[in-house]
Amino acid sequence: MGDTDHAGRVEESKSQNPKSRFLLYRACRESFQPATMETPSPKHTCLKLQLKEAQQPIYVKGTWFESRFDLSITDGLNAWICHASEEQVRDRAAQWDQPVSEYVALAERYLGFQHPDSAYGFADAGDGHKRLSWTFEKEGTKLEWRWKCQPSPNSKQTTAAVLDFLMDANVGLSEEVVRKTQSFERLKVEAEKCLAQSEKLTNEKIEFESAIYAKFLGVLNSKKAKLRELRDKISKQEIAGKLPEEEEASSDQTEPFVNIDEKSEDESLKDLPVTSKDVPRTRSRVLRILQYTTILSCVARYGYEHEYVAIHLKENREVIQELHHIVHPTKNFE
């Protein structure tokens, strides 16, 4: 029994070769190992530095990490490099009482673009070395940072790397300019379409308002014409109805209104000579009789609710009532 178990364990250990055991171990380790965060990619800059003491500019290419940076400098013929390690950057930052990230960001700021208020220098430091320096102000104090650069072991390769970076940057900028130009052209076309649509809508609005206004004027003029026709028709009817009604009213009113005293008065008036003073009195009397006759004709035609009748009823109600009884003795005056 024991021999059989021992033989089975031996066969099982033989079946698992070293490669499979290593793969199993690595899988277990990766499953229990915490995931590491990806390090951010470095930034790249290139500065065309024009120095006062030099006739030709130099090019400073910088590669910026979180806690260190690398510099590649060339004047087209010779090249220099500077590898600022994390320890060196930490020591420099401690000397200036700055965090490492702030020190790297400030160096990138002054070596990424040339500041006119900063004094740059690239002086000899012996044995072919160069010392790159720049100044800046902090809290009213002018400070200077300096980094020593050693000759590049391969100047051509370093210069070619700087030129390749500049060419790639130039190509990227050209592509960006093309994209921006195309985007601008598209926006320009869209703006022109919007402008044309706006002008079209404005013209349609003006045409619509003009058409509506013309229709409104036509309707208004037709209404005015109809009102004028109705007014003329009513005035003609009133004028046509005045004469027969005046004759009827005068024939009906002669006998009731005239008594013996009035006859004698009229006969006495006939004997008197007519003067110019009596003409207005006679004219006003005739006009009053015509007015009352017109009122009665309106009453007979339209009733007492007519506007013309209602106005004169308020002013001469008693006289009109008396005339009504004379003309219509059987009807009551309401």
Automatic annotation (TrEMBL):
Q: A GO term (biological process) for this protein?
A: double-strand break repair via nonhomologous end joining
Ranges of Basic and acidic residues compositional bias? 260-270
* Domain of life assignment: Eukaryota
What are the alphabetically sorted keywords of the record?
Coiled coil, DNA damage, DNA repair, Ligase, Nucleus
| Keyword rRNA processing among record annotations | no
Locate the XRCC4 N-terminal domain: which residues? 57-152
The compartments listed are: Nucleus
> Cellular component GO terms, alphabetically?
DNA ligase IV complex; DNA-dependent protein kinase-DNA ligase 4 complex
Show the GO MF annotations.
DNA binding; ligase activity
Residues of the XRCC4 coiled-coil domain: 182-230
Q: State the coiled-coil residue ranges.
A: 184-240
Entry keyword Ligase = yes
Region feature (Disordered): 241-275
* Name by which UniProt lists this protein: Homolog of human DNA ligase iv-binding protein XRCC4
- Record lineage: Eukaryota, Viridiplantae, Streptophyta, Embryophyta, Tracheophyta
